[in-house]
Amino acid sequence: MNEAQIADERRQKDAFFRTHAQSPLTPAQQAAFTALHYFPYNPALDLILPLNLFSDIKVIPVQTTTGTVREYQRVGEITFMMDDEIARLTVYEADYGFFLPFVDALAGTETYPAGRYLEPEDLGGDRLHVDFNRAYNPYCAYGPGWSCPITPAENRLTVALRAGEMLPEGAWVGLE
Q1: Euclidean distance between CA atoms 70 and 90, whole angstroms
Q2: What's the average model confidence in pLDDT over 136-156?
Q3: CB 3.0–4.6 Å: which of 20, 64, 138, 151 could bond 115 by disulfide?
Q4: Which residue from 154, 118, 114 is spatially nearest to 135, judged by alpha carbons?
Q5: Could you give phi then psi for residue 88, rounded to 5 degrees?
Q6: Does residue 43 belong to any structural domain of this protein?
Q7: Would residue 31 count as lying in a domain?
Q8: Backbone φ, ψ for residue 108 (5° rounding)
Q9: Contact (Cβ atoms closer than 8 angstroms) between residue 6 and residue 41
Q10: Is the four-CA dihedral 136, 42, 90, 94 of positive or negative sign?
Q11: The whole model's pTM is what?
């Protein structure tokens, strides 16, 4: 996606959070909500990457923030360069397609401590469109009433990915 498309997607998401009945925010949060906090658009983190498939695809249990377990298939991994370091992330498959939970070096300071999520687009031919500008916080970042998969240890990066959603901030955060 280009910068204008990302900006439009962000405006739509902010409107959903502010006004929709299915928003993850409580009514009090919605009343005080202005916008989510995002990194500036970063074209260097809009990537087309090969998906290196695992020879044995396994179903693994992933713990959630509420103690339940969800199952995902470990499909393969992607690799890319960031800050002169090779970054590796495992790609999972869920009922709705590919799922990429990750924690980067900014977790707890600029990004949600439990990580962010992304749904890479399957381009066919074992290639994925991975646009970190679309990385988003799980709903549990906005309140305790949500059950979110906890990012597996294998997807914890030592590099910073300055793209996508940042930590929530504003008067609406923490309201119930």
Answers
A1: 16
A2: 93
A3: 151
A4: 118
A5: -120, 135
A6: yes
A7: no
A8: 90, -15
A9: yes
A10: positive
A11: 0.94
What is the span of the domain harbouring residue 67?
A: 39-155
- Split into its structural domains, the chain has a count of 1
Q: Which two tokens stand for residue 5?
A: 């498309």
- Please give the DSSP secondary-structure letter assigned to residue 44: G
Sequence-distant (6+) residues with CB within 8 A of 28 are 172, 175, 176
66-92: average pLDDT: 96
CA dist 160 and 129 (Å) reads: 19
164 part of a folded domain: no
% the chain with pLDDT above 90: 93
Distance CA 164, CA 150 (A): 18
Residue 19 lies inside a defined structural domain of this protein: no
Read off φ and ψ for residue 6, nearest 5 degrees.
-65, -45
Please choose, from the candidates 99, 96, 79, the residue with its C-alpha nearest in 3D space to the C-alpha of residue 87.
79
User: Which pair of structure tokens corresponds to residue 56?
Assistant: 């044995």
pLDDT at 143 over 90: no
How far, in Å, CA of 2 to CA of 119, rounded?
17
> What is the C-alpha R_g of the chain?
16
Strand partners, 61: 71
Q: How far apart are alpha carbons 121 and 144 in whole angstroms?
A: 29
Question: In the prediction, which pLDDT does 175 show?
Answer: 82
